[in-house]
Structures are given as structure tokens and as C-alpha cells.
Amino acid sequence: MSDIDEGLRSELQRQGIWVTSMQELYNWGRKNSIWPLQFGLACCAIEMIATAASRYDIARFGGEVFRPSPRQADLMIVAGTVTKKMAPQIVRLYNQMPDPKYVISMGACAISGGPFKQGYNVLKGIDRYIPVDVYIPGCPPRPEALLHAFMELQRKIDEQKLTGPRKAEHLDPDQPSEFPVPAFGVHDLEPPANADVFRPMKIQRNQ
Amino acid sequence: MTPHSYLFIVIFLGVALLFPIMPLILAWMWRRVFQPPKPGAEKNATYECGVESLGEAQIQFRSQYYLYAIIFLIFDVEAVFLVPFAVAFTGLPIGAFVAILVFLLLLLEGLVWAWGKGCLNWAR
User: Fold this and answer.
1) Closest Cβ opposite residue B45 in set A96, A170, A172
2) How far is B51 from chain A (nearest CA, A)?
3) Residue A98: alpha-carbon gap to chain centroid
4) Which is nearest to B49 in space by CA: A89, A76, A31, A137?
């Protein structure tokens, strides 16, 4: 599983011998067959559909197989405004996906609530409840942006370690695979954010 | 020397067994060595589009649906006869046309009878 010496590898390649490690083979297979979960929430979903269609063709990156069941999906593209009514369902769908699983937060709404942030019914970002791997800004982001996010996710998968102290989260028995589903409270979702997942940046002000 | 003529079936059987079993063994080994299983109440719950599933999936339907099913079946069979009739419509003699009309009228009469008996009202 150790990294192969690059010089030795290129030397062997010149002789027609291709050397790889289990980790590289595993990540290569995973990053080129990311199957997204088939669901869209708002206008970003239209851009996601365009990305999957022939003009932008996410199939070039191995992600064309949109699965209607979370059991077969690797990636959740949160495409659109997450209302507070919808948030528990999304967390539940995420929980029902098998490991390893990734989340792309697509568009301003899924990141922070976007233009509807002040709305009483809008969740201020899906990262309050589930861990997000890639954020794409935009309102909505163009298909190229989603493809870029897809490539960033592929890069992330490629860098994940199979063993050792810095191995990927889904290989660590201590890391949770499912997160608590928020309940409908009187005025807001209970709890309003999962403190284990949601760690917003603190603004430092000088007095 | 030619091999036994049934040898290919044995080879085929061996490959047919190995082909599905090998990935299962590899997946099992992968789980043991690298990826710890992480089952959970939510993860193993019944998938129902993200909504919590209510009750059992194996439920009984009320017997009132029986009448609807019968009436539906009559018109289902009617459609099976109507389609070839419509395709061959221009070449049909007058006798065949009358015959299909009688058939339609009989079915329509059956519907009127069922309606009159109150079969279309939802019985409680």
C-alpha cells in the first residue's frame, strides 16, 4: 500500500510493466464510477439534468448512472433550495446511502440558503446536517461548474488513503456513517444544526 | 483425441459458479481487511423516498376492489377484440360489423346492469 517510487515506476513502464498499488486501483475504480443519487430540489436540478444530457455529458467522467435508490448511489448532489420541510428527508436519504458516500452542495441555496436565506422556511445550508465534500457557488451554477465540482471530487477520492492514521473516513470504524435526522419543532428544525458536522467560520473582530 | 462431449458443460458450470462467487468472496475479504461495516437503524430502514415508512408493505386490500377488477377485466378483453377490429375495419363485410356491434352492446348492457345493481357505488 506504500507509495511507489516514481522513478522506478517510469523505468518499469518503459519496459512495458505497469505497477500500481491496491490503494491506487481502488481509488481509480471509485473515482471513475461515481453514481449520483437521482433527485433534484429546485432550479439547480435543471442544470444538473443539462449536465447529464448529451451537450455536457457527465458520462465522460463516469457519473451518468443516476440511481433512483440511495442503496446504489455514491454521490448526493444537493441541487437546489433545501426547505425545512425537505431537510429531514435529505438527511434520511444520505443516511441510507452505503459507504463511501459524498455530497456536492450545488448552488447558493444548498450552501447557505442563497437568495432565500431570510425565508422562514429555508434551511441555511445543507452542511448543517450532513458533511459536504464540494461546494459550488452560483445561482444556479452552470453545467461546467458542476463538472468542475465533479472533477474536484474525483481529485479528492484519488487522494484518499486506504490505510494508516489519515485513511478515508468511510474506512475508519470510529467515524459515523449516519447522522441524526432533524425533527420538526415549533418554529424551526430541532436541532437547528448538528454541532458535530456544522462548524461555521468564526469572524475575528479586532476591538 | 477429442474430449468428452459433456466436458464443456462441466467447464461451463465451473465458470458459471466462479463468476458470481469470486466477487462475493473478494467483497467479503475487502470488508474484513479494509472497510468496517457500519450498519444503523436509519441506514437499514426501508427506503421510501426518504420518508419514514409507515406500517407493513404486505397489507390486504378490501374485497370491494373485486367488483372493480371484474368490470375492468370485461373492458380489458373488449379492447383486445376492438384493436384487430379497428385495424381490419375497412375490409370487413357488414355481417362482421354487426357482430362486433352486438358484442359491444352486450358488454355495455353488462355495465348498465352492474350500474343498476349499485356495483359502482362504494360499499362500506
Assistant:
1) A96
2) 6
3) 13
4) A89
A99 closest CB neighbour out of B38, B42, B51: B38
Residues of B with CB under 8 A from a CB of A: 34-36, 38, 40, 42-43, 45, 47, 49-52
- The string of DSSP letters for A76-119 reads EEEES--BTTTHHHHHHHHHHSPSS-EEEEEHHHHHH-GGGTT-
Strands (E) located in A43-201: 75-79, 102-106, 134-136, 183-184, 189-190
**Amino acid at the residue B26:** L
- Furthest-apart CA atoms within chain B: distance in Å: 81
Interfacial residues of A (vs B; Cβ cutoff 8 Å): 69-71, 88-90, 92-93, 95-96, 98-99, 162-163, 170-173, 176-178, 181
Nearest to A72 by CA among A32, A26, A35: A35
A to B CB pairs, distance under 8 Å: 44
Q: How far apart are CA A152 and CA A147, in angstroms?
A: 9
Q: What is the pLDDT along chain A (207 residues), one digit of tens a residue?
A: 456 788 888 899 899 998 888 889 999 999 999 999 998 999 999 999 999 999 999 999 998 899 999 999 999 999 999 999 999 999 999 999 998 999 999 999 999 999 999 999 999 999 999 999 999 999 999 999 999 999 999 999 999 998 888 888 889 888 888 999 999 999 889 888 998 889 888 888 887
